[in-house]
Amino acid sequence: MAANSLVYETGKSAVIGMTRQMAIDFGPMGIRVNAICPGHILTEGLSKMWEGNEAGLKFFESQYPVRRVGYPDDIANAIGFLCSEDASFITGHALFVDGGLTIQLQENFGVQQAKYARGHPELILD
Predict the structure, then answer these.
(1) N or C, where is the chain less crowded by C-beta within 10 Å?
(2) How much is the pTM?
(3) Architecture of domain 6-119 in this structure
(4) SS3 string of 18-58?
(5) What pLDDT, in 10s, does the model give residues 17-49?
(6) CB 41 within 8 A of CB 103
(7) Catalytic positions, please?
């Protein structure tokens, strides 16, 4: 959750609720319904945003336990898994493909980010 993001956060919660409800409604027909909850995925558009701001991208990467942002293939691999027979007993699930961002302690995270920002005066976050 993020401060001052009521509509965005409500929408994300609604998608998860809709995923669960659709899994119940369509499961008897053999249809599985799952949701992907991505982290910061470096798509073509986002790559342009980071051009000329390598320190900013490194800042975002440092927020993830795996110390990198995601790539489209990370999402494609998760979707491929959920569509495969290996996931035939998975439905109504929100799969976080976010490099572990959602599992870390926020207090420690904030301290780490402050240390990173202090050590990188070239950082631009605008």
Answers:
(1) C
(2) 0.81
(3) 3-Layer(aba) Sandwich (3.40)
(4) HHHHHHHHHHHHCCCCCEEEECCECCHHHHHHHCCCHHHHH
(5) 999 999 999 999 999 999 999 988 999 988 888
(6) no
(7) 8
